[in-house]
Amino acid sequence: MTATRVCALSELEQDTARRVEVEGVPIAVVLDSNGEVHAIGDTCTHGDISLSEGFVEGETLECWAHGSAFSLRTGRPLNLPAYEPVPVYVVQIDGDDVLIDPNLKKEV
């Protein structure tokens, strides 16, 4: 598989999650306060809630429904009630294009 363009880098708002879908896989794309782009699974492992509707703080994305925060780097939950991690995807930047291959997960 090859990476798919999901959005323009210039379209991302800092400290805000954006939901994209690649090959049927929901992914939350985040431009953090340091200017780094992250891509994690968009579904909270606790309650089947879209994480992209949550809150970005530092290097975490917090589920709006129950408050579990997930690391943007590792996908691991940092607090309960979630205890299962979400997948983390490799992000490629090509000029202004943000590219993600849902079959290429980061090893953490």
TrEMBL record:
Which PROSITE patterns does the record associate with it? RIESKE
Does this entry carry the keyword Metal-binding?
Answer: yes
Say which domain of life the source belongs to: Bacteria
> What sections of the sequence does the record tag as coiled-coil?
none
- Keywords annotated in UniProt: 2Fe-2S, Iron, Iron-sulfur, Metal-binding
Query: According to its UniProt record, what is one Pfam family this protein matches?
Result: Rieske
Q: Identify the residues that the record assigns to the Rieske domain, covering every copy.
A: 4-100
Q: Which InterPro entries match?
A: Rieske_2Fe-2S, Rieske_2Fe-2S_sf
Q: What is this protein called?
A: Non-heme iron oxygenase ferredoxin subunit
Name its species.
Answer: Microbacterium pullorum
